[in-house]
Each structure stands twice: as C-alpha cells, then as structure tokens.
Amino acid sequence: MSKHHKNAGVGDVTLAGPLDGELCRPLNVGLVQINNSFSGQNYLPYSVALLQTYVAKFAPDPSRYRFLPSLYKRVRIADAVEALKDADLVGFSTYVWNGRISLEIARRLKALKPGIVIVFGGPHVPDQPEAFLRANPQIDLAVHNEGERTFLNILEAFPDRQAWGGMPGVSMVDAEGRFVRNPNIERVRDLDEIPSPFLEGTFDEIMAANTTESWIGLWETNRGCPFRCTFCDWGSATAGKVTKFGEDRLFREVDWFAEKKIEYIFCCDANFGIQKRDVDIANYVAETKRASGYPVALSVQNTKNATERAYLTQKILSDAGLNKGVALSMQSVDMPTLEAIKRDNISLNTYLELQRRFTRDKVETYSDLILGLPGETYESFVRGVDQLMENGQHNRIQFNNLSILPNAEMGDRAYQAKYGIITIESKIINIHGERVDLDDDVPEVQDLVIATASTPPADWRRTRIFCWMTALLHFDKLFQIPLILAHGISGVAYRDMIEAFTAADPKRFPMIAGINAFFEGEARAIQEGGAEYVFSREYLNVYWPADEYIFIKLTAEKTFDAFYEEAGRLLAETLRARSADLSLEIVDEAVRLNHALVHQPFTRENLQVRLTYDILDYWNKVRGGEPAILRKAPLVVEIDRTSKPYNDFQKWCREIVWWGNKKGAYLYAPRALEITPELAGHY
Questions:
Q1: Once rounded to an integer, what is the mean pLDDT over residues 171-175?
Q2: Among 392, 529, 563, 551, which Cα is nearest to 468's?
Q3: How far is residue 584's CA from residue 458's CA, in Å, rounded to a whole number?
Q4: 440-485 pLDDT, tens per residue?
Q5: Which residues, 6 or more positions from 15, have their beta carbon under 8 angstroms from its beta carbon?
Q6: Is residue 240's pLDDT more than 90?
Q7: What are the two backbone dihedrals, phi and then psi, of residue 95, each rounded to the nearest 5 degrees?
Q8: What is the C-alpha end-to-end distance of the chain, expressed in Å?
Q9: Is 406's pLDDT higher than 90?
Q10: Which of 20, 384, 628, 633 has the greatest number of C-beta atoms within 10 Å?
C-alpha cells in the first residue's frame, strides 16, 4: 500500500478460537486512523476500513465482531479514550502525523482498562521493534506490512495470546518478558482478494453519522514500489514488487466517488503511470468528471523512468482539470547525491524531458528538491536549482526539508554516521496549516535533518536562505520578469543574480538585507527545533512558508515601492559587475512591469505600463519553452486590477497567496497593445 496509508502486517495461519466461556457476547473492536484535517476536510479512514471490510467478508462468523465507529481525525485524547473504552481490542494505523497521539490514547486506554488488547500497525511501527515495544508496554501486538489477513487472524484467536506469539508478521513482548519478532509472510498477490470498503458499504455508517463533514478519498490502484530511495520507506516495505487491483473494481470505485460527490481523491500509489493500464484509469476518471462533475481533483505521485506513460497520464489529468500541476520529484540533480540515496537508477533526463514537454504543451509543472540530502553541498544544490530554471522550470520548485522516516534506510544509525547526518526533533507543522490548540493533545514530531558532513550547519542555513530568496523572487513572481530577461539577454546565471540578493549590503540595500536577516533567523530557529513555517495569527492564523510571509508583509506594510527600488538597483549593479551586455533601461522597464503586475488587495484603478520593448512577449515565450527574441516594439501593457477586486485582506491572503502557491499565480493577467502610428496619439 502507499507510503502514506499502508496497513499493518500479513498473516495466514490456522489458529485456535477464543477460550471457551471467555467471551459470549460479540467482540467490540475499535479502529483508529487519525489524519490531519485540511480546510475543514477530513480523509476517509481507508486503511482501517480495509481491515474491517476484510473481516466482514472472510471471518467464519462475522456476527462475532462489533466494530465501533472509527476514529478518523484529531480530537482531545480524553474524548478518544471515552469513544474507545468499550472496546475489547483496538487497532491503530500509525504514521508520523499520528504516532504520538496514538501511543497516548493507547496508554490511557490500557490504564483505564488493563485487559484491553492494543494492536499497532502501519509505517510508524519499526521493522525491528524491540526497543519500541519495550518503551511502550501499552502495545500488546505490533503488525508488519499489509494487515488484512493478520488482523483477521488476531481477532479469530482472541483472547489466546499464546497463539498470537506464533503468528507470522507479528511482534510482541510476551508475558515472560521475551521479545518475539516473527518473520513476515508473502504479501497478498491477488489484491482483489481484499474487498473494497467503498463498494462494500463500509463507509456508509461513518458518512451518515457525520453529514456535515467534507470527505477526501484515499484510493489505491496498486501496491508496492520498485525503487529503494534511502529517504523513503515505500520500497523497503514492499520488497520492490508492484501488485494491482482489478480494473473493473477501480472503475466502480471511481463511480462511487462520483455518486458520493467526493471532490478530492488522493491516490496512494507510489508510481501512478507505472502500469500500461494507468492511461485507461486516468481516462476513466477524466470521463467521469466530465459526465458528473466529480471528482474535482485527483492527486497522484508520478512514476519514474516511464517518460511516455508519465506524460500521457498527467496530460489526461491536466486536460480534465484534475490536477493543479504535475509534480516532477527529482529530489536532487547531483549524481553523487543520487547515488548516496540510491536514486541513481532513476533517469534525471526523464524528468528534464518531461519538464520540457509539459512546458511546451502548456501543462504546469512544479519540481521537488530536498534540502539536506547526504552528499549534497551548497554548491551542488544551488547549481541544481539553476539547472532546473535554465531547463524551463519557472512555475514552482518546492524546496522540502529532509526528515527521517522510521523504516527508511536513512533511519539506520550507521547510514547516518557514514554521511554525518545531524537531526533535530521538530514539531510536524503542515504548510498553511491552522494552529489548533487542543487542551488535551500531544504534538507530533519528526527527526529533521539540519546538517550533514557535506552541508555543515552554516551551509545548511545558507542553502535554506537561497531557497527562500529564490522562491520569493522567481516563483512567487515578485521579480521573475527582470531575472528571466537579464538571464536570457546577458547570459548571467540565475543563481548569480539570486545570490547577489542573499549577499545585499545592509547599508545600501536595507530592505533586502532585512529580508535576508529574517530568513537567517528562521533558518537558525529550525536548526534549534523551531517550526519549519512562520506562524502568523494576523494572517489567517496559519503557518506560512517564509517567502510567502514576506510577500504578505510587504503588501500589508505597503513597502513594495521601496522593495522594487532596491531590487532594481541591486540587479543593475550585479549585471554591470559581470560586464553584462544589456541595456539597463531594458532592465528598468522589466522591473516596472513586474511591479505593476503583482496582485494586490484594495486596488481601485487599472494600470497602463508603457514599454519600448516587447518584454511581455519575451517573458511569456521563455516561460512557455519557446524560442524568444526581445523585439524593440513600443507597446502599452494594460493591467485589469478592478474587475475582480479584493477588498478583504484575509481573503486576498487565502485565495491569492495560499491557493496560488503551487501555480505561483501571483500576477494579474496583462494585455498588450502595440503602439501603431494610428494609436500613438492616444498614449
């Protein structure tokens, strides 16, 4: 199953039933899969629903089991305990975002009701779990890998603990204090053995009981990953083999999503597009949306090393409006780094070719890079960013901090020592997530990488600052037009211009230097265990990426004029210092145009910008991957700022800065009027 929503372990044994007279009533079973909420929406608890559905279909006597309503979102721990206190057995599906709250709920349940059986599964359970189990005695059983068969066998054996000790795929500390880790058995090869919780009606009760809830669907078309990236726990958990659900089942599940009006679906596949049939699946989802309006969006992880299918599946989804941009997750473009993370068998040329093709066909893409990978240096990282921009990535590079997952190879202490990896425990904060302070909660944490042997602490901060400055100037579009123009005409590298901003003289460029100082402070705070994002109570009460926070702050404080004055001067000096063959008047025009195009709230008049060169055409062609020549062609750029005004600052923060994040949709749509002799008199 997917990295995000894997189940517990596998088991297929004949077990003794419950001890005679031990349990005459139905066995009360609780299931817990706590996910984060997003904008008032919650995920359907798919992983635990699979367990329940499997039991309902394959138990010799399904009436023996009474399932309590599943716990699917973060609530007060006391409320969770109250909801589960009548259970005889509770199964938890765990990952980094719910590991600590799940452990605390289980601890309190065991204290309240010592006889209750606690079962933990999911990717958060270590493959070698002895230390984990001894540190958490509230856990009776840990289950490894797929959990459908094993969970049924655990229930069928209840309460025969001796039988559990011999069950494949299970680990435990037995009554005598001995640690037991039984070997895994083979994964389910025919996934259609596992009944669909959608089609079997497993979600009907929870949806009927929560009619005001907006649901996000979790969906699998296959399980497994053939790649073994050291930062990821997918390949290690699935032994490199990909198994598939049947197409007819998948098509009927798509129909279910449409019938239930599920707007957003997150596909849990590690590599959507890896199978030939994925093109047909994408087409079916697109056709269903055209016919019914649902689903509105389908989020997938793109496959690797399958350029044509990756292109076709994503193009289909894009043409149907099912995605907000195609993710090209190369993580690094440095070969020694790719070798260190066992990603060198994934062709970098595949990503670069996909980026070029999607750009040419007007399909928006964004690239993922991970900061702090072993082997990466400041120089190699910055060179990689420059390469992606040179290759045409002008929409978005998502700069992610590296964190260590429990069962990834990178979690091994020897691996960390080899590459000098330094981590800090940091609270898990969602980008644009609200700060919801429950009076009875435990924060989730991650092991965040803040330095390596090749990127020592000062270089990590320097890299992080470069990422934020690149995002602010280029991908938030505040200074993209001058950068593209200057690079294309003069040949000065993007990185050289951006690094000039990160090294701005505080005396001569106080505003830009102040932004750098802010970025420096945020980078240091992360290294000391602080949040990855900037919390702002006044701006929607959410956590912002540092670059977006600066964008909002410049707007709120009405300091854009001063920013553009400094930025224009700094760019001009940078180009002069490199003897760039570029008229600084052209640079000034590009700065004025970019300034005028930045979307702002409370605008009450439209703008016109008069240019002597067709900078707008040049910028659009470069972004579209087309050959571009700067023409001397006087024109007026008309900017409509009033037809869709924003008179509410909070709404502007949400819809322009937040929702425009992936697309970088921070600029007004301009219209160019070339000045002909007949029109010259009007301007």
A1: 95
A2: 551
A3: 35
A4: 999 999 999 999 999 999 999 999 999 999 999 999 999 999 999 9
A5: 153, 156, 157, 160, 163, 167
A6: no
A7: -150, -175
A8: 63
A9: no
A10: 384
Q: Which candidate, 536, 651, 562, places its Cα nearest to that of 600?
A: 651
Supply the pTM of this predicted model: 0.91
What does the alpha-carbon distance between residue 275 and residue 94 come to, in Å, rounded to a whole number? 28
Relative to beta strand 326-331, strand 365-371 is parallel
Q: Among candidates 306, 346, 304, 7, which has minimal Cα distance to 143?
A: 7
Q: What is the DSSP string of 74-103?
A: ---HHHHHHHHTT-SEEEEE--TTTHHHHH
Beta bridge partners of 445: 427
Helix (H) or strand (E) holding 338: helix 335-340
Task: Of 444, 445, 403, give the one whose Cα is nearest residue 425.
Answer: 445
**Nearest of 348, 351, 282 to residue 321 by alpha carbon:** 282
Q: Evaluate if residue 347 carries a pLDDT over 90.
A: no
In this structure, the chain runs to a length of 683
Do 265 and 297 form a contact (C-beta atoms < 8 A)? yes
What mean pLDDT comes out for the span 557-565?
A: 97
Q: 465, 534 in Cβ contact below 8 A? A: no
User: Residue 3: its pLDDT value, please?
Assistant: 38
Most confident option among 36-45, 394-403, 432-441: 394-403
Report the C-alpha gap between 486 and 500 in whole angstroms: 14
Residue type, 459: D
Compute the distance between CA of residue 61 and CA of residue 68 in angstroms, rounded to an integer: 17
Q: How far apart are CA 424 and CA 300, in angstroms?
A: 30
Asked if residues 675 and 634 have their Cβ atoms less than 8 Å apart, the reply is yes
Structure tokens of 161? 């603990």
Reply yes or no on whether the pLDDT at 36 is more than 60: yes
Longest dimension (CA), the chain: 100
What does the alpha-carbon distance between residue 259 and residue 274 come to, in Å, rounded to a whole number? 28
Phi, psi at residue 428, to the nearest 5°?
Answer: -80, 115
Token code pair at residue 456: 């020592």
Distance (Å, whole) CA 183 – CA 194: 22
Residue 406's alpha-carbon distances to 170, 184, 517, 527, 568, in angstroms, are 18, 18, 34, 20, 47
Dihedral angle, C-alpha 399, 403, 405, 410, nearest 10 °? 100
- Give the pair of three-digit tokens for residue 262: 């599920």
355 vs 310: CA distance, rounded Å: 11
Both tokens assigned to 239? 């032994």
Residues 69-88 have a mean pLDDT of: 97
Q: Is 233 left (phi over 0), alpha (psi -120 to 50) or beta?
A: alpha
Is the distance from CB of 639 to CB of 608 less than 8 angstroms?
Answer: yes
Distance CA 348, CA 411 (A): 25
What CA–CA distance (Å, rounded) separates 58 from 53?
9
Instruction: State both tokens at 553.
Output: 């702050």
Q: What does the pLDDT average to over 355-375?
A: 90
Amino acid symbol at 198: F
Looking up tokens 């008047």, which residue turns up?
585
Mean pLDDT of the chain: 91
Rounded Cα–Cα distance for residues 201 and 53 (Å) = 9
What value does the mean pLDDT take over residues 245-253? 98
Q: What is the pLDDT of residue 664?
A: 61
Which contiguous run of DSSP H or E holds residue 170? strand 170-173
CA distance to 95, 219, 247, 308, per residue, from 222 (Å): 20, 9, 10, 19
* Per-residue tokens: 499: 């690094």
